[in-house]
Amino acid sequence: MKYKISGGYVVRSIMNECILVPVDASCKTGTSMISINETGKIIIDSVQKGLDEKGIAQALKAEYDITEQEAISDTEEFLDGLFCAGVLETA
After folding, report:
1. What's 20's domain CATH number?
2. What integer pLDDT is reported at residue 86 of this predicted model?
3. Residue range of the domain that includes 61
4. Measured distance CA(51)–CA(16) in Å, rounded
5. What gap in Å lies between CA 5 and CA 78, rounded to an integer?
6. pTM score, whole prediction
7. Which candidate, 3, 5, 2, places its Cα nearest to that of 18?
8. CA separation for the pair 22, 7 (Å, rounded)
9. What is each CA distance from 91 to 6, 16, 30, 42, 57, in whole angstroms?
10. Per-residue pLDDT of the chain in tens (91 residues, 90 and over written 9)
11. Phi, psi of 76 (to 5 degrees)
12. How far apart are CA 59 and CA 68, in angstroms?
């Protein structure tokens, strides 16, 4: 499945930190910004490139010394969390 960043959020890099910033009052997480780590940034960058879950997992596997199953699991967990929070929507 492919995802995209919800219209209620923008991605910003501030002082080498990736932050998801709500720009819409209807955002489920209220007015809180979401800071993501380096792995999360790879996933967000991959989402913005239009990669599906398998492509995102391959990007993680290429970056880190992890198994394909670990990459798939990490990708699914991260995407599910952001989807449930309303940050991501299906493309």
Report:
1. 1.10.10.1150
2. 87
3. 3-90
4. 23
5. 13
6. 0.87
7. 5
8. 9
9. 10, 27, 23, 18, 17
10. 999 999 889 999 988 889 999 887 655 555 588 899 999 999 999 999 999 999 999 999 999 999 999 999 999 999 999 999 889 999 9
11. -60, -45
12. 10
